[in-house]
Amino acid sequence: MRTITIEQFHRELRAQGVASHDDVAFCCPMCGTVQSARDLKLEVETPER
């Protein structure tokens, strides 16, 4: 895991070049799974899929 400033975090999100904030991707520091905010929202809305 690495530590970055909030400004660096925002730059890295913008660099992904996605149209919606829901589509920015994050890598879980625990398991390495890459998920978007959209994926996380779907999981919260439908946890029994």
What key attributes describe this structure?
2 strands, two-stranded antiparallel sheet, 49 residues, alpha+beta, 2 helices, single chain
Could you explain the architecture of this structure?
- By secondary structure, this protein is an alpha+beta fold.
- It has one domain.
- The protein is built from two helices and two strands; from the N terminus they run αββα.
- It has helices spanning 6-15, 37-45; strands at 25-27, 34-36.
- A two-stranded antiparallel ribbon has the order 1-2.
- The protein is globular, with a radius of gyration of 12 Å.
Give a brief rundown of this model.
The protein has 49 residues and is of the alpha+beta class.
- How many domains would you count in the coordinates? 1
Strand content: 5-15%
Order of helices and strands: HEEH
Mean pLDDT: 88
Query: Total number of β-strand segments?
Result: 2
Structural class label: alpha+beta
> Uncertain spans, ≥5 residues at pLDDT below 50?
none
Residues in helices, as a percent range: 25-40%
First-to-last CA distance: 30 Å
How would you describe the shape?
globular
Radius of gyration computed on alpha carbons: 12 Å
**Main sheet: strand order:** 1-2
Number of helices: 2
- Main sheet makeup: 2 strands, antiparallel
